[in-house]
Amino acid sequence: MVVQISPEIESQIEAFARRTGESKDELVRKALLSYLEDRQDALRAAERVKNIGARISLDEIGRKYGRVLEEEQADPYAPEVLDHLRQGMAEADRGEFVPQTEIEAFFDDWRRNG
To answer: Rounded to whole angstroms, how far apart are CA atoms 98 and 103?
Structure first.
């Protein structure tokens, strides 16, 4: 495979190769692999977002249900609730989402039944 690059980019590659002690070929190979991995991750994330249905942002949850959490601070179960929220945020970071309707139903039930 032959790839044509501008003289400016080639100069940058040469300078970086001198600085790191790596060959130009190795730097370009690593850069392409990194780019492809990033693009694949972005495409996977986009596909996941398409398939999760209605969503609610963390800010929106805070605005809508923050008052409930503040009221529960005196409750001995509050740390458990906060642990569940932290666990949920970690799941979201991994791309695992709960549909908005389930979140709203949970908090509505929580407000009604404590």
So the answer is: 7
Model-level pTM greater than 0.70? no
Query: What is the three-class DSSP state of 95?
Result: coil
Report CA torsion sign: 70, 72, 76, 79. Answer: negative
Q: Which helix (H) or strand (E) holds 56?
A: none
> Which of 34-38, 56-60, 63-67, 96-100 is least confident?
63-67
Q: For 10-37, what is each residue's pLDDT tens digit?
A: 999 999 999 999 999 999 999 999 989 8
* Residue 77 burial (10 A CB sphere; 0-12, 13-18, 19+): exposed
Element (H, E) at 38: helix 24-50
Q: What is the distance between the alpha carbons of residues 106 and 84, in angstroms, rounded to a whole number?
A: 12
On the question of pLDDT at 114 being above 80, the answer is no
Q: Residue 33 corresponds to which tokens in the numbers above?
A: 């692999």
